[in-house]
Predict the 3D structure of the following.
Amino acid sequence: VYLRVAEALISQGKEVIYLVPEITLTHQLAQQVFKRFEGQVAILHSGLTPSQRIAAWRKILNGEVKLAIGARSAVFAPFKNLGLIIIDEEHENSYKSGSNPRYHARQVAQRRASSQKALLVMGSATPSLEAWHMMEEGVVERHHLETRVAGGLPPEVSVVNMLPEKSLLSRKLVSEMRKTLAKGRQVILFLNRRGFSYFFHCRNCGYEMSCPHCSVALTYHKGVNRMMCHYCSYNRTPITVCPECSSLDVGYGGFGTEMVEKEVNNSFPLAKVARLDTDSAGKQEDVAQILSAFRRGEIDILLGTQMVAKGLNFPKVDLVGIVLADSGLNLPDFRSQERTFALIVQVGGRAGRYNQWGQVIVQTYRPDNFAIRMATEGNSPAFYSQELAVRRETAFPPYSRLINFVVRGGVKAKVATEIEQLRLFIASLIGMLEIRDDSPSILGVAPCPLEKIANKWRYHLVLRGGRINELLQIATAVKRGFKVSPSLFLEIDVDPLQLL
């Protein structure tokens, strides 16, 4: 669909930007696009060297290139006669920049398409709530693909309640994996948590080992035999004695991809197993090699984190196992249900893309959770309807806009004092505005859920309102008029995707 629309517009002398959420998908897509638009394609992403990026930009500026493929920064490709912007998997969080400037590629694309009179095409099996709301309101035109492009049928989905199970892999999942491998077909296992186990605890006094620099538990990585922090990279050797009470009754709880990999190897010693996460695949070339080997059938079971959930297309995959569907539900974030629903549907979509034998097994300790139930039943309209009703009732996006102000610094008391000063400053700005039902309001001031990262204490203030122009006026006034102490930092995030 995307390439035919692109072809039509390029034939009219127009230019095209094609955005994908991950660099790994850029490589997969580039092979198809190069064949169709030979000599007219540039690739743009953060993995390029400065000279490669400059060379690609010069080709675009000189009119040598008609189509640019890339991750979010490609939305700024300097085309002068832009006719089309494509955003594949538009729901993906990776389209939002996590550092300054904190832009969202979807919003930039909407602005560019509007100002340059170009067509904007967004695609997703699980649209963001914002996109779904825009479709309901008629702002965005909906086109629904009734069938899979390659002709496969939607996979059969089954849910396994893990409470009575004694292993990481349920009896049903192991049984179906054996059947799939016996037919010479492939399996994908998904778990959105890396490492071997993710917390150390003492059963005697309850002590839990956390990072000394961050408010998170250390994760045990068995491959390197280290306890590691995924936020500041602090690491240390594992311990066998509790440092608080000297008890030997200690252990590691929870499980990550390393532990699942060990269990898979024990259960299927003859199968070729590969793990794909940021620990096993440090470079983009490593990721591409693993995915290519899997596509060629050299790997039987691919186990991974979100890297295996996005847009990948493998003809021989018949079975997808979601090892634990609950991992994102416990986050203190109003988008946790939406993310859980999207992940289950997206990962399940890797199964049976070319045939009618696709199967998805979802393991969960919460089979009655609404997001998990609607995802496994394939009932998107019901999920979006209920989730939008909840957001409307609580006045959260898309029924309001948010700005998250985060103050961080090395001394907790200073940060707490500064955020209170910021609250008073913003309250005075709100007092100057006309009072309406959708007027800006301060949701509250509190320590961030991740209160300390890399020895910096973090407090935040969330500003909510119905009109983005008023919120931006306040944010601009804060940026220009509120001077934080020299030892502190202020981050301003418009339309935050998470409040951690």
Remarks:
- The CA atoms of residues 112 and 214 lie 39 Å apart.
- The chain has 13 helices and 20 strands.
- Residues 412-431 form the longest helix (20 residues).
